[in-house]
# Entry
Amino acid sequence: MKKIWIIVILFITITLFDNGTVLSKSTKRFEFEKTGDAIWNARTTKKIVALTFDDGPDPLYTTQILKLLKKYNAKATFFVIGEHVGEYPEIVQDEAKQGHEIANHTYSHHFSANLSQEAFVT
Ligand SMILES: [Zn+2]
# Structure
């Protein structure tokens, strides 16, 4: 369970601070923390690495990644784009069958720092 939270934390951190800080500037962070909908960090003494892959599924790269993860019995989180899932649903099914986490990386990967909070969410 901790692994999932670490992955979520990593994704949220990268997303919020690497894409124009759309959400963090709107000061919604504290609201998310209050509700528990998002976590920014966690205390642990373990050395943990979360493997995450964005923008898939991709018929070439995702399948290669899945083979490697299987070979080393490693788990990852795949942040998928809805449009790509529509094109390659079988790859996402393979990700799930192998026990990886599937997470939303928007439908069309259209990010803009100029989007309002409302436009970002919809
Ligand atoms: Zn991306």
Q: What stands out?
A: Confidence is low (pLDDT under 50) at residues 6-24. Residues 2-18 form the longest helix (17 residues). Residues 54-55, 105, 109 surround zinc ion (CB under 6 Å). The CA atoms of residues 2 and 54 lie 21 Å apart.
